[in-house]
Amino acid sequence: MQQEKSSAFEKLSQEQVNGLRKRHEKLSRGQDGGVRADFSFKDLRGLDFSGADLCEANFTGAALYGANFARAKLDGANLFAADLRETNFTRASLRRADLRGALLRGAILVDSDLYDADLREGVIAMRNRKNGLNYLEHEKDPSNLDGALLINANLERARLSGASAVAADFTDAVMKGCRLVRANLKRATLHGANLDGADLSGADLSGADLREAVICHTQTVETDFSGAEMDGVLSDVPVGKPLSSLPRPLAEMLQDHDRYVSSLGREGRTAELDEIDLRSAESLAGLNLAGMKARGAVFYGLDMKGVHLQGAQLEGADLRMTDLSGADMRGINLTGARLHHCNLRECDLGPLPLGQERMLASRMERAVLHHADLRGARLRKANLTGAVMSHAEIAGVDLRGATLAEAVLPKQAPVRISS
Q1: How far apart are CA 313 and CA 392, in angstroms?
Q2: pLDDT tens digits for range 383-396
């Protein structure tokens, strides 16, 4: 098989690229003079495309080694069989992009959006007058996503069947419904990744790091997990104690709890749900669960909109992907809780009045809120010591009087912090 050298491609300058980019952006805005950018089979190595709007542009077979696409918009772009080794796609949008056969070894895709992108195997056959069909190869034995950085990337519904991602880093990536049939994920880091509903049939995950990952409703027929780290994995198998271990039906216990709260302790009893896996419960939306004890309980993916959790004890609870929008959580204890991708919009996590000017502040020390939606939430006087809020949506959050020692806040945080 003859190798097609990148140096044989037409080399474009940064000035030429900027001109094509401007004309493409005019097309996107519906302005006169707009033309779709065609960078197919061009030598674009090391050039700067940062912040560009190149949705649906054509990069088929292009040589883009080391190029910069940080914050670029590439939705629907054609990157079929492109050389993207060590290319920077930080915070870029590649929704529904065609990346079949692309070489992404060492590429930086941190915080990128690859929703419904196609990263399957692929090859281009090019007609040659002397030798018939030649296959485009930017290098021998292409390694695809090997060693790529996809930390916090969105790969929901992406197609990676047959792809190679040896030693790639998918830490905290969203991979719901991702197709990874026969994918090579040896020694890959999937720590905290959400693979809910993914298809891992025949995939090789030997030696992979799957700690704290979610593999619920995931197809794992003939999947190789040999030597993989699986501590804290959330699968379809109940974690901790199943609902069947409760002394009474959950619905009955929650009714009793509501009576206890409503009667100020004169009737009913407090619900004790420590370490219980509540995923199979019906919706908890709008229930009065004030003062509930559910330390280390699993609430993953539950509908808890508008729930009352004032003064509840939820230390170490798993609240990933839960919908707590509009909830009253004043004075709650969420120390060490996991709230990745949790919907906390307009919730109240401020102090709980206890009478005679006493206030119980919410505790969220060491809580993890990766990609949580906290827009419009109230966290006045909350203790967020050591909390991790990287990549959280916190526009309009009220953090006045909050304790933020060693807390990790997202960049460009439009919040109220001063008292």
Answers
A1: 23
A2: 999 999 988 999 99
Nearest to 334 by CA among 282, 288, 372, 279: 372
H or E element in which residue 27 lies? helix 14-29
Indicate the length of the chain as a whole number.
Answer: 419
pLDDT tens-digit profile of 241-286?
A: 999 999 999 999 999 999 999 998 899 999 999 999 999 997 899 9
List all residues 6 or more positions away from 400 whose beta carbon is below 8 Å from its beta carbon.
Answer: 380, 381, 416, 417, 418, 419
Determine the Cα–Cα distance for residues 118 and 85; give it in Å rounded to an integer: 17
* Token pair belonging to 73: 């918009």
Among 327, 314, 339, residue whose Cα is nearest residue 377: 327
Contacts of 231 (CB under 8 A, 6+ apart): 211, 212
Three-state helix/strand/coil letters over 149-194: ECCCCECCCCECCCCECCCCECCCCECCCCECCCCECCCCECCCCE
Q: Can you read off the two tokens belonging to residue 309?
A: 């959790």
Annotate 154-169 with b (16+ C-beta within 10 A) or e (fewer): bbbbbbbbbbbbbbbb
Instruction: List strand residue ranges (DSSP E) for 193-258, in order.
Output: none
Task: Tell me the domains of the chain and their CATH numbers.
Answer: 1-144 (2.160.20.80), 245-419 (2.160.20)
User: Cα–Cα distance between 383 and 237 in angstroms, integer?
Assistant: 33
Question: Cα–Cα distance between 273 and 76 in angstroms, integer?
Answer: 47
The conformation of residue 7, written as its DSSP 8-state character, comes to G
Give the pLDDT confidence of 49-79 residue by residue, as tens digits.
Answer: 999 999 999 999 999 999 999 999 999 999 9
Pair of tokens at residue 299: 């609430």
The structure tokens 């929008």 sit at 325
Task: Say which residue the tokens 């190595």 belong to.
Answer: 45
pLDDT at 140: 41
Q: Residue 12's CB: how many other CB atoms inside 10 A? A: 18
Q: Is 253 helix (H, G, I), strand (E, B) or coil?
A: helix
Bridge partners, 352 (sequence order): 360
Dihedral Cα 55, 137, 154, 223, nearest 10 deg: 150
Q: CA angle, 180 as apex, 177 and 182 as ends, to 5°?
A: 150
